[in-house]
């Protein structure tokens, strides 16, 4: 089964750039910063059997951000992450990242341009699209800035930026602050993906579901067994909005008690559309093949079930119809 999961062509729809850096990429970035020992005493990955609280996980992103501080470093990081995914059998990747400036070293525009350059320079078969993230800890101006950059990049490279994401510490910020930007993004034809219900927050969850993003990340605390309620779960299931399910991320962040008790079980039994995803493969020390394998073991899925799960993900990509046809042909 492990081998089957590796060989299965896969689609990754929920991957944060700075959370996806492998240990070897982090070492290369340390060299580039002229500080080869910067991470010697800092553990960047949460290995098998280990767990962190949500806030400890967010501390880890800060550490990684200290390395992607120049366009050159961002380009190297992006190129490495794309190669890692390709080696794991990913045929289509929607990579997401929050435009970030570093005083005196890089503007937000340069940050995003560096990612775009790395995507364009990649020579493999994997298709890569970009989502720009809005961090809930930021201000509404930052969200507007992210939208402007997304539209500027799209003008130069049509089809490269496919949407806007709402992410960041789920205990911070408020949806209302950013909703006007997401409304505008939708009017401009961008896709919308939102992290939803990583912590219990009924009012916000219902507001997000009403807004109907193209996809939802996590939906951890919606089911009554995991801190939600029947109303939230029923509204989700009736919405049929595809869910990016991140098994290992949720387990290692301690938002679900075990794989077996992960809400993917309920999503599968309700035949709800799901895309297995890694979230932050570097920080959570996993890859998408591993996530498929875990799903198979935890929920007794057959090879055919996994094949169907992977092929069905094509429908939830924010790519053109033509690209979706191309991906379906890949599976055939
Ligand atoms: P970046 O956007 O490429 O810098 O990737 C790291 C960022 O992604 C973090 O600082 C968070 O804002 C966001 N992120 C990564 N994982 C999660 C998650 O599980 N929930 C919410 N936000 C996340
Ligand atoms: Zn995420």
TrEMBL record:
Its cofactor is Zn(2+). GO terms for molecular function: adenosine deaminase activity; metal ion binding. It holds the Pfam family A_deaminase. Signal peptide: none annotated. It catalyses: N(6)-methyl-AMP + H2O + H(+) = IMP + methylamine. Residues 9-328 form the Adenosine deaminase domain. Gene3D superfamilies: Metal-dependent hydrolases (3.20.20.140). InterPro entries: A_deaminase_dom (IPR001365), Ado/ade_deaminase (IPR006330), Metal_Hydrolase (IPR032466). Catalyzes the hydrolysis of the free cytosolic methylated adenosine nucleotide N(6)-methyl-AMP (N6-mAMP) to produce inositol monophosphate (IMP) and methylamine. Is required for the catabolism of cytosolic N6-mAMP, which is derived from the degradation of mRNA containing N6-methylated adenine (m6A). One of its GO terms (biological process) is adenosine catabolic process. SUPFAM superfamilies: Metallo-dependent hydrolases (SSF51556). It comes from Cloeon dipterum. This is Adenosine deaminase-like protein. Belongs to the metallo-dependent hydrolases superfamily. Adenosine and AMP deaminases family. Keywords: Hydrolase, Metal-binding, Nucleotide metabolism, Zinc. Monomer.
């Amino acid at each position: 089964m492990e081998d089957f999961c590796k060989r299965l062509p896969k689609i990754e729809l929920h991957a944060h750039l700075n959370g996806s850096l492998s240990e070897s990429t982090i070492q290369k970035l340390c060299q580039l910063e002229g500080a080869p020992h910067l991470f010697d005493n800092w553990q960047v990955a949460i290995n098998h059997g280990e767990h962190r609280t949500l806030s400890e996980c967010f501390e880890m992103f800060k550490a990684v951000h200290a390395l992607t501080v120049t366009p050159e470093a961002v380009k190297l990081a992006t190129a490495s992450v794309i190669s890692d995914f390709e080696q794991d059998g990913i045929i289509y990747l929607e990579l997401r990242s929050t435009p970030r400036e570093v005083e005196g070293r890089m503007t937000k525009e340069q940050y995003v341009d560096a990612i775009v350059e790395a995507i364009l320079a990649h020579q493999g078969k994997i298709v890569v699209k970009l989502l720009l993230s809005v961090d809930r800890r930021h201000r509404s101006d930052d969200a507007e800035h992210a939208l402007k950059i997304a539209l500027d990049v799209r003008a130069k490279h049509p089809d490269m930026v496919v949407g806007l994401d709402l992410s960041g510490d789920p205990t911070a910020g408020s949806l209302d602050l950013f909703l006007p930007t997401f409304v505008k993004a939708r009017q401009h034809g961008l896709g919308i993906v939102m992290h939803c219900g990583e912590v219990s927050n009924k009012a916000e969850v219902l507001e997000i579901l009403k807004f109907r993003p193209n996809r939802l990340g996590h939906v951890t605390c919606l089911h009554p067994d995991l801190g939600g309620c029947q109303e939230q779960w029923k509204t989700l299931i009736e919405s049929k909005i595809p869910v990016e399910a991140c098994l290992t991320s949720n387990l290692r962040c301690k938002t679900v008690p075990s794989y077996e008790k992960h809400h993917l079980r309920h999503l599968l039994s309700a035949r709800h559309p799901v895309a297995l995803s890694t979230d932050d493969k570097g920080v959570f020390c996993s890859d998408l093949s591993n996530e498929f394998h875990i799903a198979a073991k935890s929920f007794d899925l057959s090879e055919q079930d996994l094949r169907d799960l992977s092929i069905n993900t094509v429908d939830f990509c924010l790519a053109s119809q033509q690209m979706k046809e191309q991906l379906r042909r890949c599976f055939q």
